[in-house]
Amino acid sequence: MRTTRKIITLIAALALLFSSVVPAFADGFTDLEDHWSKPYMEKLVEKGIMAGYADGTIKPDKTVTAAEAFVMLANLYDLKDAAKEEIYKDYGPTVEKESDVSWANKQIAICMAADIITEAELKNITFSAEMPKQNLAVYMVRAIRKADEAEKLEKTELEYKDAADITSKCLGSVALLTEMKIVSGDTNGNFTPKASVTRGVFATMLCNILDYLEKENIKLKLDDYLGLETAEGILSSVSNTEIILRGFDGIYRSYPRDAAMKSTVNGAEKSLSSTYAGDNIKLQLSEEGKAVTAAVTDEANVTYKQGLLNTVSTNTVSIKVTDLYTKESGAYTLTGATITQDGKEVAFTDLTKGAFITMKLEKGAVKEVVSNTKEYTISGKVGAVKYDTTVTMAVKEDNEADAVLYMDLADMPTIKRGSLKITVDRLSEGEDIKVTIKGGEVTAIATQGKDATMAGVLTIITRTISDTTWTIKGEDGTSATYILDTGAAAFTGDTGETAIKLDTINPGDEVSVIVTAGVITEVTLKKTAAPAADKLTAEILAVDPNNRVLTVLKDGKLTYINCKKAASILNSETGKTMSFSALAAGDMIVAYGTYKDSTNFEATSIVIELKH
Question: Is residue 87 located within the same domain as residue 208?
Answer without folding.
Answer: yes
